[in-house]
Amino acid sequence: MIHKPKIVVIGGGTGLPVVLRGLRDQDADVTAVVTVADDGGSSGILRNYINVVPPGDIRNVLVALSEMSPLELDVFQYRFKSSDQFFAGHAIGNLIISALSEMRGGIFPAVQELSQMMKIRGHVYPVANEPLTLNAEFTDGTKLSGEAEITAAHRQIKRVWVTTADGADGDQIQPVPEVLAAIRAADQIVIGPGSLFTSILPNLTIRAVRDAICESRAEVVYICNIMTQKGETDHFTDADHVRVLNDHLGQNFIDTVLVNIQPVPKNYLDFKQWNEISQPVGHDFQGLRDLGCRVISANFLRLKDNGAFHDRDRVVAELMNRLHQVHE
């Protein structure tokens, strides 16, 4: 039996599904580890009303790895119009995930059951089986709790950490055991792309997850964001992103960084439509090398709907290329 390479992708937000959609069609065993600290939009409302893990990021990851028909996926992703007062803004998939979480006594068993129903190629693991709260300390010494509030504050973040409803911190939080097992068995660990402080780091500030990654023999690849994010990474270079990751984990753990060097046309971006973005991430290749990183710089850019995104096919081709080189 031929060994399928095991790839673990860690993150949340809109960047994670892009990479997963491309990996789904590769001959690989793919596991997505998804943040449970989102508290904005439909996810936040459901979290507050019925005390479930926020389902939005999980919903998008399920869709990315699903082999259901386009019509079935469209129904799952359908979001009620704002004029539908009771259901305003809710995606049907969020309601289904929330209902199954109540029926099965937690988000993890709910997602495993839904994975079978949705014909998932791979595995989808919420990082924990309970909602987590993201906390941040800013460079001015002030602190805030809640992912949505932290992002809206538009202040420079110094560090973030997660807590449970009863006050347990990252040292005490128990991640889902399957998450740790997947990380330990991985041939490649992929981090990002996604919001550095609010999508990626909430997973990594759980000590058990952090330790498993640092102890892993797998190559750790960071897909650096193309654009900086308002209120999170203003004026950041690619090396700044890696430096923040390393500081939170207490060691230089990123082995390889994928960096887009294709210029983003200034007049193409619609900053009103994509109001989270600020400017292209700056390059500091010497800084990356000083952090012990292998740098792969290439055209990873895809221009779409007046926004700048990662080109899924080019990113996935590079990830698979890294796997083959490492294991030759």
Automatic annotation (TrEMBL):
Gene3D superfamilies: CofD-like domains (3.40.50.10680). Coiled coil: none annotated. GO terms for molecular function: LPPG:FO 2-phospho-L-lactate transferase activity. Its main location: cytoplasm. GO terms for biological process: regulation of cell shape. NCBIfam families: CofD_related. This is Putative gluconeogenesis factor. It comes from Limosilactobacillus antri DSM 16041.
